[in-house]
Amino acid sequence: LEVRKAVMAKLGESMLSNCKIVKSIGKGSFTSMPDGERLGGKSELGFLGRSLPEPKAVITVRFTSGGRPSDIFDLELDAGSSVDALRGKMIASAVAQGKPGCA
Q: Per the count of CB atoms within 10 A, which of 19, 74, 75, 80 is most buried?
């Protein structure tokens, strides 16, 4: 039950019936795990009842603000970010590292 409630909180779900922890009982068949059943060291669980959000794709962008190796930065952005978002991260990174003339 604790795992189901944690999933509900993460998803912003209000109905417990929309968050089922399941285990496989055959090819393409599942059964709900009882709320009191111990996980017993399981690190992966099945989930049914509500669509999970797609994992965000992250891209790494490398840029330079000068000609020295110390002027090369790697930034992580969500895929689909705008140029303005990239520009903002570049400026914030340069300012945080005390690079003059980058802001």
A: 19
DSSP per residue, the chain? -HHHHHHHHHHT---GGG-EEEEEEETTEEEEPPTT---TT----EEESSPPPPPPPEEEEEEESSSSGGGEEEEEEETT--HHHHHHHHHHHHHHTT-TT--
- pTM of the shown model: 0.45
| Structure-token pair, residue 96 | 């945080």
pLDDT in tens, 4-43: 888 888 888 888 888 888 888 888 899 998 988 888 888 8
